[in-house]
Amino acid sequence: MENMKNACACPHHKVIPVLIVLFGLTFLLGALGILTPGFVNIAWPIIVIAGGLMKWVNKSGMCKCC
Asked: Residues 4-45: pLDDT tens digits?
Protein backbone atom coordinates (compact mmCIF):
# COMPACT_ATOMS: atom_id res chain seq x y z
CA MET A 1 0.00 0.00 0.00
CA GLU A 2 2.98 2.29 0.38
CA ASN A 3 3.30 2.52 -3.42
CA MET A 4 -0.26 3.79 -3.71
CA LYS A 5 0.59 6.97 -1.79
CA ASN A 6 3.21 7.91 -4.37
CA ALA A 7 1.15 6.83 -7.39
CA CYS A 8 0.31 9.39 -10.01
CA ALA A 9 -3.27 10.64 -9.95
CA CYS A 10 -3.45 11.37 -13.69
CA PRO A 11 -6.53 9.62 -15.12
CA HIS A 12 -4.84 8.68 -18.39
CA HIS A 13 -2.64 6.17 -16.53
CA LYS A 14 -5.74 3.99 -16.09
CA VAL A 15 -6.54 3.80 -19.81
CA ILE A 16 -4.08 1.04 -20.77
CA PRO A 17 -5.20 -1.35 -17.99
CA VAL A 18 -8.83 -0.74 -18.98
CA LEU A 19 -8.01 -1.51 -22.62
CA ILE A 20 -6.27 -4.74 -21.57
CA VAL A 21 -9.36 -5.79 -19.63
CA LEU A 22 -11.58 -4.94 -22.63
CA PHE A 23 -9.27 -6.97 -24.87
CA GLY A 24 -9.61 -10.02 -22.64
CA LEU A 25 -13.35 -9.57 -22.21
CA THR A 26 -13.80 -9.36 -25.98
CA PHE A 27 -12.26 -12.78 -26.47
CA LEU A 28 -13.97 -14.28 -23.41
CA LEU A 29 -17.41 -13.09 -24.46
CA GLY A 30 -16.70 -14.26 -28.01
CA ALA A 31 -15.72 -17.71 -26.76
CA LEU A 32 -18.88 -17.90 -24.66
CA GLY A 33 -20.98 -17.04 -27.69
CA ILE A 34 -22.23 -13.74 -26.26
CA LEU A 35 -20.45 -11.71 -28.94
CA THR A 36 -20.51 -12.70 -32.59
CA PRO A 37 -17.25 -13.74 -34.23
CA GLY A 38 -17.62 -10.83 -36.65
CA PHE A 39 -17.76 -8.33 -33.80
CA VAL A 40 -14.75 -9.90 -32.09
CA ASN A 41 -12.78 -9.73 -35.36
CA ILE A 42 -13.49 -6.00 -35.60
CA ALA A 43 -13.23 -5.10 -31.90
CA TRP A 44 -9.84 -6.55 -30.94
CA PRO A 45 -7.77 -4.61 -33.53
CA ILE A 46 -9.52 -1.40 -32.51
CA ILE A 47 -8.62 -2.02 -28.85
CA VAL A 48 -4.98 -2.73 -29.76
CA ILE A 49 -4.78 0.41 -31.91
CA ALA A 50 -6.31 2.50 -29.12
CA GLY A 51 -3.72 1.16 -26.67
CA GLY A 52 -0.90 1.94 -29.07
CA LEU A 53 -2.18 5.46 -29.64
CA MET A 54 -2.43 6.07 -25.92
CA LYS A 55 1.17 4.95 -25.40
CA TRP A 56 2.29 7.15 -28.29
CA VAL A 57 0.47 10.20 -26.94
CA ASN A 58 1.92 9.63 -23.45
CA LYS A 59 5.45 9.48 -24.88
CA SER A 60 5.01 12.88 -26.56
CA GLY A 61 5.04 14.71 -23.24
CA MET A 62 1.33 15.06 -22.55
CA CYS A 63 1.75 14.12 -18.89
CA LYS A 64 3.90 16.23 -16.63
CA CYS A 65 4.32 13.42 -14.09
CA CYS A 66 5.88 10.90 -16.48
From this structure: 566 677 777 788 888 899 999 999 999 999 999 999 999 999
Contact 47, 22 (CB under 8 A): yes
Q: Return d(Cα 25, Cα 21) in angstroms, integer.
A: 6
The reply to whether the predicted model has a pTM over 0.85 is no
DSSP state letters, 12-37: GGGHHHHHHHHHHHHHHHHHTTSS-H
CA 35 vs CA 27, 31, 32, 39: distances in Å = 9, 8, 8, 6
Q: Which of 40, 36, 45, 11 is nearest to 25 (CA)?
A: 40
